[in-house]
């Protein structure tokens, strides 16, 4: 909304203040992000949402006065909000076609009112307010935002009220997220092109020699800075596919300022540095490449280019590049240097960072701090070009390492590694992942695991000038680790252990200086001490997710899995701990499974206590993948975990219960957990004093309590009381979410509800309806829906103020929460006093509006909730008629393909049709043929409510004959064969009403309904008796009348 809006968004005109947003995928993506931000702002940041803008946001809207309901004063076509600022001005004002909004609270409400035109409103708002930050915060704070980037500290004179400062930070964070999303898409779009452009520029630089063969005077970039995706253009120009900007001096014409983009090359307005916005505009045709452009502009170049040995070929630095990756210190194809040379150049590089850039007498421009925050800084701040340094005649570090290690390690190093101390370097033969590069793994194999996480962008050190002393000390240790004998290696490993390896600087230093390759290769040696030392270091640095990814990229995880077969306990335990740290993303978990790691880890559960604990830790990490869960089950892991669940040690119990609760998401595991008697142990550990253990136990019960037997076991082993006691730990949100989830699922059994109420669980749950995260609210509201099935509890919810809180939650966007809220509101609405409060709070309209939600579960849940609301409302008929567009909405849902939606809508229509005026309106809306089309459905729940709706519609006009003409009678006759008694009752009542039309009686008689109807006359259900008797009487009366007519 700051830089992202003014720079990254694509406009139809480059001139500020004019133009419209282009209809491009990038714009649509950004608009949806902004829409989501505004929609959720009021609920997530209520205080900041009330802040009054410095100037109102104004745009041309599609909304009209009739779209506004409560909270607004409506006068003809004008609308004003009840909310006003300190001077009495309304915070939202509509004067068609313009709307004026002065707070995020009103913006959020307006977006909700826009319904299916939300995106159009956001687009119009941004087009009408090209710089919304100035209007929202005022020019002073906006200037701070534009100058300082993401890490700017707001001065006291700029802060004003606390809410204004917080709003400033929220908008700043949103701006960063938009730019990050934008750059991610850009990186995917231009992932291959920057390398080719770099190759092309290097070839042109060869033509800048002196003498007769000179074709060009000079070729240079406008910026020395290269982003991690290979581009040199600033982020907001990368949106347009621009890669870099060049200044080329031909021998015979004026200097050319050229833009190289994914579409080709063209002349620009004269970019000498990135700050000159006007220079970006294209001033020539677009050419396919730089050579073609230069040929058209410089006769000297065109004449001499063919004389040069200019066969287009790849430079050594690009021969093995699979995708764009920034190379930190030298061209990738250059020969490796000895460690002494590398160390020297690192120090030289640090000194060069302080020296001013004197090339061409121009100032060197540094990137905006915002780019650093987005992860765009290259590793260790590399310069534009590096001259190749001649390799010394001595051995390379890779050769030294080969001599030190055994044969297996040597062969592995030869195949997989080219040991170098270049920051962040891997062998060009390996698949690499870095910021701005799409991982090859994502394309080489499609994972079927549902828990795939996105590869996180790699964070690099911003500059070598700020490196701490530990960096240089680690550099010396890595030197000995690479070049020493066995004794020196062990000593170097011990020295490295003395560093604070949990500090990110030390972790990345080991990676950047080539230590990680050596540590991984040591895993393939025969020396136990070397392996233990390497695993201990890897165990600590692998807590860093980026290090874990590099370990997987280098093939280190396979080596760690092999060590699980070792006879040395310490090795097995360390290997398992390393797997636990590394297997935090799907590719690592898949690698463990594919190399037999799951079976080996399960086997560890049978051994030494410490080894078993480490094995459980590794299985916990691996169990986040569905295929791994199945592999654990097949390997016999569940009974072994059940045995360890009886351990008295908390450090053992946490990974064991953690693994069980991950696996409990699968039904087959839940059955085993129940049959193996683990519920008793889970309940026992709820009384632990360790919050993490309690959380995992509650989470396991939450997932297992889907089954009635498990719910009964929790009650049997007295697990409900400790679950209620956990509700008091409101500061621990993860524990609170697990506890409320367990209570929700346990309360599905009414016996558990009675038990829970002994500990005042209901009052505590109502208290949790405000100021809690959505994952907690979903569970709390789900539990209230179950508690409200008991009449006495409905009064308790009302007395504790729960009705108002529930109605307020109807305006949210979380689908799972909306399903549970509507169910709870519907359950409470069966109480007349509760219904009066719901009606007073406009709850019925809010529930009805959820029928517009695209989610079928929300639609059906809302329709079910409407049934008791309509039935218990004081003036239900008038209330329904007052809802603008309500009839059209509910009738349209009869065309749904979801049986649950259809059943709930039929039930709601049956309630609405009890009012004669509403019945007439629905008939005019064409409900009769829609109901008739549904009679061929086989779902008993749908059949029951469909027959009930047909029964009510038969009481108006000629609807009985219309149902017969539409072919609804014959299918209804088959409903009598159902095994559901409720279907029998509603069907008999429908047939009774239909039988009042003679033609329908004939159809019924032909379909053989008389025999089952006579059978149902003996039912204990009086309503069924009367309906069947009445239907048979009507059929019999028609038959007698027909016989008498024939006799005459």
Automatic annotation (TrEMBL):
Compositional bias ranges of the Basic and acidic residues kind: 340-369
SMART domains recorded: ARM (SM00185)
Chain segments carrying region Disordered: 326-466
Domain of life: Eukaryota
Gene3D superfamilies: Leucine-rich Repeat Variant (1.25.10.10)
InterPro entries: ARM-like (IPR011989), ARM-type_fold (IPR016024), Armadillo (IPR000225)
Comp. bias (Polar residues): 418-432
Segments annotated as ARM repeats: 596-637, 760-802, 885-927
PANTHER family named in the record: ARMADILLO REPEAT-CONTAINING PROTEIN 4 ARMC4, OUTER DYNEIN ARM-DOCKING COMPLEX SUBUNIT 2
Protein's name according to its UniProt entry: Armadillo repeat-containing protein 4
Organism: Collichthys lucidus
């Amino acid at each position: 909304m700051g830089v992202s809006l003014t720079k990254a968004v694509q406009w139809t005109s480059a001139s500020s203040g004019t133009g419209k947003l282009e209809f491009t995928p990038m714009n649509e993506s950004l608009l949806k992000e902004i829409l989501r931000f505004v929609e959720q702002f009021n609920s997530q940041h209520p205080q900041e949402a009330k802040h009054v803008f410095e100037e109102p946001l104004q745009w041309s809207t599609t909304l009209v006065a009739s779209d506004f309901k409560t909270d607004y004063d409506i006068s003809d076509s004008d609308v004003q909000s009840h909310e006003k600022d300190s001077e009495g001005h309304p915070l939202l004002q509509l004067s068609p076609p313009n709307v004026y909004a002065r707070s995020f609270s009103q913006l959020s409400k307006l977006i909700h009112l826009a319904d299916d035109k939300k995106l159009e409103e956001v687009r119009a708002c941004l087009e009408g307010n090209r710089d919304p930050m100035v209007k929202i915060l005022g020019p002073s704070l906006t200037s701070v935002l534009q100058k300082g980037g993401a890490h700017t500290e707001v001065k006291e004179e700029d802060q004003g009220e606390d809410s204004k400062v917080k709003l400033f930070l929220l908008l700043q964070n949103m701006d960063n997220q938009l730019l990050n999303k934008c750059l991610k898409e850009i990186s995917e779009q231009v992932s291959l092109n920057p390398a080719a452009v770099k190759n092309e520029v290097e070839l042109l630089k060869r033509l800048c020699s002196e003498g007769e063969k000179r074709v060009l005077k000079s070729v240079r970039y406008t910026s020395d800075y290269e982003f991690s995706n290979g581009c040199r253009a600033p982020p907001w120009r990368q949106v347009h596919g621009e890669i870099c900007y060049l200044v080329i001096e031909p021998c015979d014409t004026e200097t050319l300022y050229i833009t190289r983009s994914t579409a080709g090359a063209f002349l620009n307005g004269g970019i000498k540095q990135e700050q000159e916005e006007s220079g970006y505009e294209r001033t020539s045709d677009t050419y396919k490449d730089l050579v073609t452009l230069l040929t058209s502009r410089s006769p000297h170049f065109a004449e001499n280019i063919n004389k040069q040995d200019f066969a287009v070929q790849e430079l050594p630095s690009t021969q093995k590049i699979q995708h764009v990756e920034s190379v930190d210190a030298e061209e990738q194809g250059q020969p490796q240097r000895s460690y002494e040379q590398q160390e020297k150049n690192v120090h030289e590089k640090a000194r060069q960072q302080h020296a001013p850039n004197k090339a061409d007498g121009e100032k060197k421009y540094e990137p905006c701090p915002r780019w650093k925050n987005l992860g765009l800084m290259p590793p260790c701040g590399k310069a534009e070009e590096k001259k190749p340094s001649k390799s010394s005649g001595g051995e390379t570090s890779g050769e030294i390492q080969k001599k030190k290690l055994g044969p297996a390690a040597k062969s592995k190093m030869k195949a997989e590694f080219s040991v170098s101390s270049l920051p962040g370097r891997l062998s060009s033969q390996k698949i690499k992942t870095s910021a701005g590069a799409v991982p090859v793994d994502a394309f080489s194999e499609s994972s079927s695991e549902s828990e795939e996480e996105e590869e996180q962008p790699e964070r690099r050190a911003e500059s070598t000038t700020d490196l701490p002393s530990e960096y240089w000390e680690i550099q010396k240790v890595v030197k000995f680790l690479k070049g020493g004998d066995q004794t020196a290696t062990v000593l170097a490993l011990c020295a490295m252990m003395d560093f604070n390896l949990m500090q990110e600087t030390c972790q990345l230093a080991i990676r950047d200086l080539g230590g990680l390759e050596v540590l991984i290769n040591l895993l393939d040696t025969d020396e136990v001490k070397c392996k233990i030392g390497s695993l201990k270091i890897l165990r600590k640095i692998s807590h860093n997710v980026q290090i874990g990814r590099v370990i997987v990229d280098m093939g280190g995880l396979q080596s760690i899995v092999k060590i699980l077969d070792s006879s040395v306990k310490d090795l097995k335990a360390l290997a398992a701990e390393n797997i636990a740290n590394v297997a935090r993303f799907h590719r690592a978990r898949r690698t463990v499974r594919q190399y037999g790691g799951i079976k080996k880890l399960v086997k560890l559960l049978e051994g030494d206590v410490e080894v078993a604990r480490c094995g459980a830790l590794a299985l916990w990490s691996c169990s986040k993948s569905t295929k791994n869960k199945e592999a654990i089950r097949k390997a016999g892991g569940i009974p072994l975990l059940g045995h360890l669940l009886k351990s008295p040690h908390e450090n053992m119990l946490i990974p064991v219960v953690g693994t069980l609760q991950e696996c409990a998401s699968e039904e087959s595991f839940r059955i085993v957990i129940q049959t193996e008697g683990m519920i008793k142990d889970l309940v026992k550990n709820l009384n632990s004093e360790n919050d993490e253990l309690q959380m995992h136990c509650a989470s396991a019960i939450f997932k297992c309590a889907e089954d009635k037997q498990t719910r009964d076991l929790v009650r049997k082993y007295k697990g409900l009381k400790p679950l209620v006691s956990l509700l008091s730990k409101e500061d621990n949100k993860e524990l609170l979410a697990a506890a409320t989830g367990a209570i929700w699922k346990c309360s599905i059994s009414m016996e558990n509800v009675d038990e829970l109420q002994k500990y005042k669980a209901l009052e505590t749950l109502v208290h949790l309806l405000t100021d809690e995260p959505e994952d907690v609210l979903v569970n709390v509201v789900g539990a209230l829906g179950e508690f409200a099935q008991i009449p006495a509890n409905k009064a308790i919810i009302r007395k504790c103020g729960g009705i108002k809180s529930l109605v307020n939650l109807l305006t949210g966007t979380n689908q799972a929460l909306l399903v549970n809220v509507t169910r709870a509101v519907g359950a409470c609405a069966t109480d007349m006093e509760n219904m009066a409060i719901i009606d007073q709070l406009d709850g019925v309209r809010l529930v009805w509006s959820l029928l517009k939600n695209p989610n079928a579960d929300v639609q059906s849940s809302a329709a079910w909730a409407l049934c008791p609301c309509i039935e218990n409302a004081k003036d239900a008929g008038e209330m329904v008629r007052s809802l603008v567009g309500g009839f059209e909405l509910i009738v349209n849902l009869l065309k749904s393909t979801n049986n649950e939606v259809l059943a709930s809508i039929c039930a709601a229509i049956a309630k609405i049709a009890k009012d004669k005026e509403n019945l007439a309106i629905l008939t005019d809306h064409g409900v009769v043929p829609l109901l008739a089309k549904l009679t061929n459905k086989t779902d008993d729940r749908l059949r029951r409510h469909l027959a009930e709706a047909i029964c009510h519609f038969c009481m108006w006009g000629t609807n009985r004959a219309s149902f017969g003409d539409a072919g609804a009678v014959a299918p209804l006759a088959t409903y009598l064969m159902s095994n559901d008694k409720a279907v029998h009752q509603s069907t008999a009542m429908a047939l009774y009403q239909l039988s009042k039309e003679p033609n329908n009686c004939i159809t019924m008689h032909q379909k053989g309904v008389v025999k089952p109807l006579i059978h149902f006359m003996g039912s204990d259900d009086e309503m069924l008796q009367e309906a069947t008797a009445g239907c048979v009487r009507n059929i019999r009366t028609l038959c007698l009348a027909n016989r008498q007519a024939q006799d005459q």
